[in-house]
Amino acid sequence: GKTWKTMPLALNDVLICHNSPAALSRYSVLLEEDDLVSTPPSPLSSSSSSSSPSSSCDDTNHGGNCDGDDTKKKKKFEAYYHIRSSGLRLCTALGATAAMKSAGGFAMSRDDRRIQFHDREPIYYDHEPKPPGRGRGFYPANKTTKFRWNTRVGKIYVDGAHVCHSVRIGDEIEVESAEGDELEIYTKNFRNIALT
Questions:
Q1: Which of 20, 21, 98, 119 has a CB 3.0–4.6 Å from the CB of 85, allowing a cystine?
Q2: Rounded Cα distance, 95 and 27, in Å
Q3: pLDDT digits over 115-156, tens only?
Q4: How far is CA 110 from the centre of its chain?
Q5: Is 35 left (phi over 0), alpha (psi -120 to 50) or beta?
Q6: Exposure string for 110-145, b = 16+ CB within 10 A, e = fewer
């Protein structure tokens, strides 16, 4: 059977890439039928845990869907979409104003439980279809997104360079939003801290 390694919860961001920053990263994301329709990303439409099941879903993502909890629907088509880039960056709402925003991502509301993603410097050819969202967007908070690592070696970095885990070709990676402990911030100059 499969052996899973559970990584520590990320407060800010996660980076999945080749061991060498100059090398190409190859990975695949599992897409469902509805994910193949590309729409512009909606950066500030929060889908926090307080949202009702009837709220609309405007996520543009690799592996997100808006089906809710309707388990009676027929299982939809699934397929892997192969991506070549400098790696994949994911972030929480608190990490959206750091490296993610510098790379062209979006700031997020503090109570937004979605996971924002960004394919770093992706390689797209004219004869191949472009990924949903053109390589950036959001995963819904209640969605487990599955990846397959297609490079010989790689690393998963959590909140910087100190916490990491090695991956190799064929490894499967799952990413989802998790419930963490309440965060308290202590500072003498609170007004100068941007939390949104």
A1: 119
A2: 23
A3: 999 999 998 776 666 666 678 899 888 888 999 999 999 999
A4: 17
A5: alpha
A6: eebbbbbbbbbebeeeeeeeebbbebbbbbbbbbeb
- Ranges of the chain with pLDDT below 70: 1, 33-75, 126-133, 180-181, 183, 185-196
**C-alpha distances in Å from residue 3, one per residue of 6, 54, 178:** 10, 37, 21
Phi-psi region of 68 (alpha: psi -120 to 50; beta: other; left: phi over 0): left
pLDDT tens digits, 53-64: 333 334 444 654
Summary count for the chain: helices (H), strands (E): 1, 10
3-state secondary structure at position 132:
helix
Question: What percentage of the chain's residues is helix, strand, coil (to nearest 5)?
Answer: 10, 30, 65
